[in-house]
Design goal:
single chain; alpha/beta; Rossmann fold; 3-stranded parallel sheet; 3-stranded mixed sheet; 9 helices
């Protein structure tokens, strides 16, 4: 509403979360065959591996994004362009002096952190697999949306959709100096398709693939002293 009152802002870009885009069926019976911008997290379900804080986080993120987008169809506030960018799990390196929580989720199979691993399991069961994106691509996506002559709507921001077991297996194969427990290498084989190309169709180009995202998470964690070298059994 501050943007409306300013009479000078013509576009609002809201950084949203992928927790609002679950492909869960409304009755909780399973997942849809795809995940894209038409998916909204059902709020009437009990989520696996959840706790009150995580459940409230999902509800607040979903309701907030819905409310933000509703302003874009409200003629009473003028021609304000509303854009939401639900981000996947954000990986990559950082200038911060600590490892961001989202990066800690990526490497939870190496650190055995109970909180981060439970959060990863929760997210996997909420959205089927893990949409992931590099922090540099996240920044560029925001700039891209700022620079368009006109843009509005919802755009999922992630360029890979992988299982937690695939992440663990990549680290096991490429970083053998770190131990990966066998339990992290197991998980359901879900065939949910990543169905969104909306940002790409607008002309956006992702620069970081899955390998680059995962490698930069390792680089970040090592730099901040969060990874100890051990031997795989």
């Amino acid at each position: 509403m501050s943007c409306v009152r300013s009479r000078s802002v013509r576009r609002v870009i809201y950084t949203a979360s992928v927790v609002s885009t679950s492909p869960l069926m409304e009755d909780g019976s399973g997942f849809k065959d795809f995940i894209d911008e038409t998916c909204w997290t059902p709020l009437n379900l009990s989520y696996a591996y959840s706790n009150p804080n995580l459940t409230e986080y999902v509800i607040s993120k979903t309701l907030t994004e819905e409310q933000i987008l509703s302003y874009g169809t409200n003629s009473d506030i003028g021609e304000l362009e509303m854009v939401t960018l639900p981000l996947g799990v954000v990986g990559g390196d950082t200038f911060q002096s600590y490892t961001p929580l989202s990066v800690a989720l990526f490497i939870s199979s190496l650190t055995n952190g109970e909180f981060t691993y439970q959060a990863l399991r929760f997210l996997k069961e909420l959205v089927g697999k893990l949409p992931i994106v590099h922090i540099d691509d996240v920044c560029e996506a925001h700039i891209f949306c700022m620079e368009q002559p006109s843009i509005r709507g919802r755009f999922l921001c992630a360029n890979s959709y992988v299982s937690s077991s695939e992440i663990a297996d990549y680290y096991r194969k490429n970083y053998p100096e770190h131990h990966v427990k066998q339990e992290y290498l197991k998980g359901p084989k879900r065939e949910i398709k990543w169905g969104t190309t909306k940002l790409i169709e607008k002309g956006f180009v992702y620069k970081y693939d899955t390998k680059m995202i995962l490698d930069d998470c390792i680089k970040c964690a090592k730099k901040n002293g969060d990874l100890l070298t051990t031997k795989n059994n």
